[in-house]
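Meet my pick.
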Amino acid sequence: MRLDGLSEQESRSRFWVIDKDGLLHSGARTSSRNRPSNAQPESRLAGWPRNSGGNIGLADVVGKIEASTLIGLSTVQGAFSEPIVREMARKSPRPIIFPLSNPTSKSEARPEDLMTWTDGRALVATGSPFAPVSYGGRTIRIPQCNNVYRSPARHRSRGVAAGRPPMSSRSSEVGKT
Protein backbone atom coordinates (compact mmCIF):
# COMPACT_ATOMS: atom_id res chain seq x y z
CA MET A 1 0.00 0.00 0.00
CA ARG A 2 2.89 2.31 0.76
CA LEU A 3 4.30 1.62 -2.73
CA ASP A 4 0.96 2.72 -4.15
CA GLY A 5 1.26 6.09 -2.44
CA LEU A 6 -0.61 5.66 0.84
CA SER A 7 0.88 7.14 3.98
CA GLU A 8 1.82 4.87 6.86
CA GLN A 9 -1.26 6.04 8.76
CA GLU A 10 -3.56 5.39 5.77
CA SER A 11 -2.02 1.95 5.30
CA ARG A 12 -2.44 1.05 8.98
CA SER A 13 -6.06 2.22 8.93
CA ARG A 14 -6.86 -0.56 6.45
CA PHE A 15 -5.83 -3.33 8.83
CA TRP A 16 -8.33 -4.49 11.42
CA VAL A 17 -6.66 -6.73 14.00
CA ILE A 18 -8.91 -8.96 16.08
CA ASP A 19 -7.42 -10.84 19.04
CA LYS A 20 -8.98 -13.15 21.61
CA ASP A 21 -10.74 -10.15 23.19
CA GLY A 22 -12.05 -8.66 19.94
CA LEU A 23 -11.06 -5.78 17.68
CA LEU A 24 -8.00 -3.84 18.80
CA HIS A 25 -9.05 -0.21 19.13
CA SER A 26 -7.97 2.80 21.12
CA GLY A 27 -10.79 2.42 23.64
CA ALA A 28 -10.35 -1.34 24.19
CA ARG A 29 -9.26 -2.69 27.52
CA THR A 30 -6.73 -5.24 26.35
CA SER A 31 -3.19 -6.14 27.20
CA SER A 32 -2.20 -6.81 23.58
CA ARG A 33 1.29 -5.71 22.72
CA ASN A 34 0.06 -4.81 19.24
CA ARG A 35 -2.55 -2.31 20.34
CA PRO A 36 -0.70 1.02 19.97
CA SER A 37 0.33 0.63 16.33
CA ASN A 38 -2.50 -1.61 15.07
CA ALA A 39 -5.45 -0.26 17.01
CA GLN A 40 -8.31 1.41 15.18
CA PRO A 41 -9.32 4.79 16.61
CA GLU A 42 -12.43 4.55 18.79
CA SER A 43 -13.96 7.37 16.72
CA ARG A 44 -14.28 5.02 13.70
CA LEU A 45 -16.43 2.61 15.70
CA ALA A 46 -19.37 4.77 16.77
CA GLY A 47 -22.56 2.72 16.61
CA TRP A 48 -20.80 -0.60 15.99
CA PRO A 49 -22.34 -3.69 17.64
CA ARG A 50 -20.53 -5.01 20.70
CA ASN A 51 -20.87 -8.17 22.71
CA SER A 52 -21.81 -8.27 26.40
CA GLY A 53 -18.17 -7.56 27.31
CA GLY A 54 -18.11 -4.48 25.08
CA ASN A 55 -15.91 -6.15 22.46
CA ILE A 56 -16.28 -6.15 18.68
CA GLY A 57 -15.83 -9.57 17.06
CA LEU A 58 -14.56 -10.70 13.66
CA ALA A 59 -18.06 -11.15 12.23
CA ASP A 60 -18.99 -7.59 13.16
CA VAL A 61 -15.80 -6.18 11.63
CA VAL A 62 -16.29 -8.10 8.37
CA GLY A 63 -19.93 -6.93 8.33
CA LYS A 64 -18.91 -3.27 8.62
CA ILE A 65 -15.85 -2.97 6.37
CA GLU A 66 -14.93 -3.95 2.82
CA ALA A 67 -12.67 -6.80 3.93
CA SER A 68 -10.79 -8.53 1.14
CA THR A 69 -8.25 -10.53 3.16
CA LEU A 70 -8.40 -12.74 6.25
CA ILE A 71 -5.22 -14.01 7.91
CA GLY A 72 -5.79 -16.52 10.70
CA LEU A 73 -3.31 -16.94 13.55
CA SER A 74 -5.71 -18.03 16.29
CA THR A 75 -5.49 -21.84 16.46
CA VAL A 76 -9.29 -21.67 16.84
CA GLN A 77 -10.85 -24.26 14.55
CA GLY A 78 -13.71 -22.70 12.60
CA ALA A 79 -12.94 -19.07 13.48
CA PHE A 80 -13.54 -18.23 9.81
CA SER A 81 -17.16 -19.38 9.83
CA GLU A 82 -19.48 -19.68 6.86
CA PRO A 83 -21.35 -16.40 7.59
CA ILE A 84 -18.06 -14.47 7.93
CA VAL A 85 -16.60 -15.89 4.72
CA ARG A 86 -19.82 -15.47 2.72
CA GLU A 87 -20.12 -11.84 3.85
CA MET A 88 -16.56 -11.13 2.79
CA ALA A 89 -17.07 -12.93 -0.54
CA ARG A 90 -20.19 -10.84 -1.16
CA LYS A 91 -18.03 -7.71 -1.07
CA SER A 92 -14.81 -8.96 -2.66
CA PRO A 93 -14.48 -10.47 -6.15
CA ARG A 94 -11.36 -12.49 -5.17
CA PRO A 95 -11.20 -12.93 -1.38
CA ILE A 96 -7.80 -13.83 0.05
CA ILE A 97 -8.10 -16.24 2.97
CA PHE A 98 -5.10 -17.64 4.83
CA PRO A 99 -6.05 -19.95 7.72
CA LEU A 100 -2.45 -20.32 8.92
CA SER A 101 -2.81 -22.09 12.27
CA ASN A 102 -1.52 -25.60 12.56
CA PRO A 103 -1.90 -28.49 12.91
CA THR A 104 -4.86 -28.98 10.56
CA SER A 105 -7.15 -29.65 13.54
CA LYS A 106 -6.63 -26.02 14.62
CA SER A 107 -7.05 -24.38 11.22
CA GLU A 108 -9.48 -21.44 11.16
CA ALA A 109 -11.25 -22.99 8.16
CA ARG A 110 -10.98 -25.92 5.76
CA PRO A 111 -10.04 -25.10 2.17
CA GLU A 112 -12.93 -27.12 0.71
CA ASP A 113 -15.39 -25.08 2.78
CA LEU A 114 -13.74 -21.81 1.73
CA MET A 115 -14.07 -22.75 -1.94
CA THR A 116 -17.72 -23.67 -1.48
CA TRP A 117 -18.58 -20.54 0.51
CA THR A 118 -16.87 -18.25 -2.06
CA ASP A 119 -18.11 -20.05 -5.18
CA GLY A 120 -14.53 -21.07 -5.95
CA ARG A 121 -13.24 -17.47 -6.04
CA ALA A 122 -11.04 -17.46 -2.93
CA LEU A 123 -7.27 -17.39 -3.04
CA VAL A 124 -6.42 -19.80 -0.22
CA ALA A 125 -3.14 -20.77 1.43
CA THR A 126 -2.87 -22.63 4.72
CA GLY A 127 -0.42 -23.15 7.55
CA SER A 128 -0.80 -26.93 7.42
CA PRO A 129 -0.86 -29.30 4.50
CA PHE A 130 -4.28 -29.88 2.93
CA ALA A 131 -5.19 -32.05 -0.05
CA PRO A 132 -6.21 -30.36 -3.31
CA VAL A 133 -9.86 -29.30 -3.51
CA SER A 134 -12.22 -30.27 -6.32
CA TYR A 135 -14.60 -27.47 -7.19
CA GLY A 136 -16.57 -26.64 -10.32
CA GLY A 137 -14.92 -29.33 -12.42
CA ARG A 138 -11.38 -28.26 -11.54
CA THR A 139 -8.78 -29.29 -9.02
CA ILE A 140 -7.40 -26.48 -6.89
CA ARG A 141 -4.03 -27.02 -5.23
CA ILE A 142 -3.84 -25.49 -1.75
CA PRO A 143 -0.38 -24.03 -1.07
CA GLN A 144 1.11 -24.08 2.41
CA CYS A 145 2.63 -20.88 3.79
CA ASN A 146 3.12 -21.54 7.49
CA ASN A 147 6.54 -19.90 7.73
CA VAL A 148 5.22 -16.42 7.00
CA TYR A 149 4.69 -15.62 10.69
CA ARG A 150 6.83 -16.50 13.68
CA SER A 151 4.98 -18.24 16.55
CA PRO A 152 1.45 -17.32 15.42
CA ALA A 153 -0.29 -19.19 18.24
CA ARG A 154 1.58 -17.13 20.82
CA HIS A 155 -0.35 -14.00 19.82
CA ARG A 156 -3.78 -15.68 19.88
CA SER A 157 -5.19 -13.36 17.26
CA ARG A 158 -8.59 -14.38 15.92
CA GLY A 159 -7.78 -12.89 12.55
CA VAL A 160 -6.70 -9.90 10.61
CA ALA A 161 -9.14 -8.38 8.19
CA ALA A 162 -7.67 -6.03 5.63
CA GLY A 163 -9.71 -3.59 3.62
CA ARG A 164 -9.14 -2.88 -0.05
CA PRO A 165 -6.66 -2.89 -1.67
CA PRO A 166 -5.25 -6.14 -0.23
CA MET A 167 -1.84 -5.69 -1.82
CA SER A 168 0.11 -3.47 -4.14
CA SER A 169 -1.42 -3.08 -7.58
CA ARG A 170 1.89 -4.33 -8.89
CA SER A 171 0.90 -7.71 -7.43
CA SER A 172 -2.56 -7.82 -8.99
CA GLU A 173 -1.84 -10.93 -11.02
CA VAL A 174 -0.95 -13.08 -8.00
CA GLY A 175 -3.22 -16.09 -7.72
CA LYS A 176 -5.15 -15.58 -10.95
CA THR A 177 -5.97 -18.82 -12.77
In short: The domain at 15-26+53-166 is CATH 3.40.50.720 (Rossmann fold). The two ends are 24 Å apart (CA to CA). The chain has one domain: 15-26+53-166. Confidence is low (pLDDT under 50) at residues 148-158, 164-177.
